[in-house]
């Protein structure tokens, strides 16, 4: 991967005269600048702009996008949060090498971006947010949708985006774009800084004209930047690993975004080290690679977790080491930790021996420093055995027949979806986000290539699924994109199913209807709580009672093809029809809210009330306290 910073020189062409200028509005300047940027492969850096026009962006940005619609396509969506999710998913599907912008109105449109910005921030994914803002002149103050602050006249609703942006700027004069836009692009294309960028655009400034240097809009190649490894850090990391006989690699999203999957595979096999994958890192190794021991942590495989708890040295590459990965800091208690990460904030976690660097370059350098060193042969053999046993478990769990009259569970559906295309199942991209499904998908979904597993679990955001699927399909139109979603997430945000039909971006949506929030219902009871306010039957209801929702009919109302199936056999047949369809296709199936996949997994800390009148809560609290004590003893 190229280590240099973003280039600021135009591609080979006739240079503009030093004194040449072009008069544009601020909005036109933004759009023209973005349209001129190219990747190292010659593709447009920005695949387009998602836009919902309203007060504060329709006249300025809207006119500019129309003027440059051939150079930078505009996509209409139905919900601002959803379209930002689509833009984020587009960037993730491109391994952060291409991205999208999003523009909204000044009020609810702008604040609807906050959740999506937080998702991008947590997952270290680039998206450029261009919300409208109030008048800088304040002449018509207060304007429609303005949030007034009695203590600070400079505050607007867009200030809510500051906490969830990696870079924030409010453009109060058109000339400020000359510095703000290059800064924004650097953050979006820097491995260490990467995340959402917000440029708040007051509506009067959008419409202001300015004489910009013509050279500012010359086509530019954007090279992605990541720090190179420092030799002394590599030496320390190598020295730490050499002391280990039973090491484990934890592969995070940074391996995929650093285009380091081949480097990781070669490293693992050269040194005999098993590889466990995080949610973001799944797909770094093919599912049937001899050293792939499956997902790690709370939603991980029994193989990976057994090895993690026994390991004396963990190499964490490109991971945030969040609690699902570390088992709330109970998995790696016996191990010295070495961390490779481009982000200085992430690389310092868990008191690791830190290598702040690009994953690809650091893995290669570390392998060279280790020379012929290998893990203990017995450890590598144990990893091979456990990995094979886990693959056998996956095959059994996903292929066990469901008895007549018994509702299927998530594992049954996952197995049926993957069996539905024996010819080229590795062409599928699965998309999911929240609930029980990400746990079962991390354990059970088989993918052989980076990008085949697209699950947003850093923010675990319900409602991401269909919007994210749309972004993935726009990025990878040649692949079959399968969105697997629960009824709770579908009801929370489904409008971009209509957008997928409008754009000809076909999705296959497999909807599991367990009549409520089944995952949280189980967690509630595991903590001693009574079933309450999660499954629809356990919610407060009026006289008409709980609604009987026909999801297939709803999808048809949005323009998609759809059907409801009664069992796993019918699901497999419906998947064949969906694959052959010419537009988005939803299949709904009733599932059991009470039966999770018991195989795999690890402890996760969820605080249980210290005092309760319920005996079940008291019992759960005692178990919680025992687990806390065990963690403290293990960490000594």
Automatic annotation (TrEMBL):
One Gene Ontology term of the molecular function aspect: hydrolase activity, acting on acid carbon-carbon bonds, in ketonic substances
Record SUPFAM superfamilies: DHS-like NAD/FAD-binding domain, Thiamin diphosphate-binding fold (THDP-binding)
Keyword Hydrolase set for record: yes
Residue span(s) of domain Thiamine pyrophosphate enzyme TPP-binding: 434-588
Database matches in CDD domains: TPP_PYR_POX_like
Name of the protein: 3D-(3,5/4)-trihydroxycyclohexane-1,2-dione hydrolase
Thiamine pyrophosphate enzyme central domain span: 234-366
Family note: Belongs to the TPP enzyme family.
Biological processes, Gene Ontology terms: inositol catabolic process; isoleucine biosynthetic process; L-valine biosynthetic process
A Gene Ontology term for the protein's cellular component: acetolactate synthase complex
Organism of this sequence: Caballeronia insecticola
Keywords for this protein: Hydrolase, Thiamine pyrophosphate
Annotated ranges, domain Thiamine pyrophosphate enzyme N-terminal TPP-binding: 25-145
